Amino acid sequence: MLASNGCRQTGAPRADAGPVRHYPISGRVVGENLASGEIELDAAAIPGFMDAMTMPYRVADAAVLKQVHQGDRISGVLDVTGDGTTLDQVRITDSSKEVRDPVPQSLMKPLVPGEAVPDFAFLDQDAKTVHLSDFHGKLLLVTFVYTHCPLSDYCPRMSRNFAEIDKSLAATGPLYAATHLLTVSFDPARDTPAALRSYGGAYTGNYVNETFAHWTFAAPPEAELARVLDFFDVGSVPAPGGTLTHTLSTVEIGPDGRILKWYGGNDWTSAAVLADVKRALQPATAGSAA
Predict the structure, then answer these.
(1) What global pTM score does this model have?
(2) Which domains are assigned to the chain?
(3) DSSP tag of 241
(4) How far is CA 227 from CA 107, 109, 223, 231, 245, in A?
(5) What three-state secondary structure class fits 220?
(6) 166, 167, 189, 290 — which has fewest CB within 10 A?
(7) Residue 181, pLDDT above cutoff 60
(8) How far is CA 234 from CA 79, 226, 270, in A?
(9) How many CB atoms lie within 10 A of CB 54?
(10) What percent of the chain has pLDDT above 70?
(11) What's the pLDDT at 2?
C-alpha cells in the first residue's frame, strides 16, 4: 500500500482544519512531478463532491513518486477538510507497461523577471473594459481562477490568499496606495461581470457593498483567452461535468508593467508575497512617507 497526499498539504490534515470528510477515489496516473512532489491523476467522479477531472495531488511520501508510473491505475481515499484535500491509502490496481522517462518534464515554464507584459484587456465586475496599462504606476498582483472550481486548495485558496493580502495592505497606508490586485477568470463564458461581482464581494467580505477600488475581478474576451493564458503560463482544458483541468499562476508586475516575480502552483503564502511587495516598493513608499 502506498500513502500519498493531495493537492496542497503534506501529512495529515491540520488539527484546526475542521471536520474531515472521506471519499473513495480512483483513476489513472497521468504523470508525476518529483520537483513539486505531486501525482497528476485522471480521477473518476466522486458522487457528492466533484465530477471526473484531472488534477495534481501532492504526496506525503516522496517514495510514492518512484513507485507509481504514468498509466498506472490507482485507488485510495480522498480526505477533505476546509484546509485542503489529502489523497491517502493509495493502491496500484493496474500497473502500466508503458516505457517512460523517470522524471517527466514539467509543463510549466517560469515567467522571466523583466519581461514586458502585453496590454491585455479584460471585462471587469462592473462590465467595464480595463487594460493592464490602467494599473501602470502601481505594483500589480495578478492571479488566475474560475469561480466554479470545486477544490478548496486551488482557486479558492488563491482567492483566500489575495483576501489576506488585500486586508494586510489596507493597514499599511502607502503600500495600499501603491498596489492593486487583479483576479482573472479563465472561464469567461460563465464568469460574467455579475458572477465576478458576487464572487469578489464574498472574498472581500463586503458582499454587495464592495467597491472593488483596490481589488478587481475580470475575465478576458473569449477571443483573447488563449493568448492571455499562454503568456501567463496557465493551462486550462475542459473536463467532464463542466469543470476545468488547470494549472495555477500568480504574478507580481512592477509599476513599469514588467514581470517582477512569478509564483507557480499553490505553495506560496500571503506572507511571502507581502514580503516581496514590501521589498519591491520600499524605496518608493519610504519616499512617499517622508
Answers:
(1) 0.66
(2) 21-94 (2.40.50.320), 121-289 (3.40.30.10)
(3) G
(4) 17, 15, 8, 6, 18
(5) coil
(6) 290
(7) yes
(8) 27, 9, 20
(9) 19
(10) 82
(11) 40
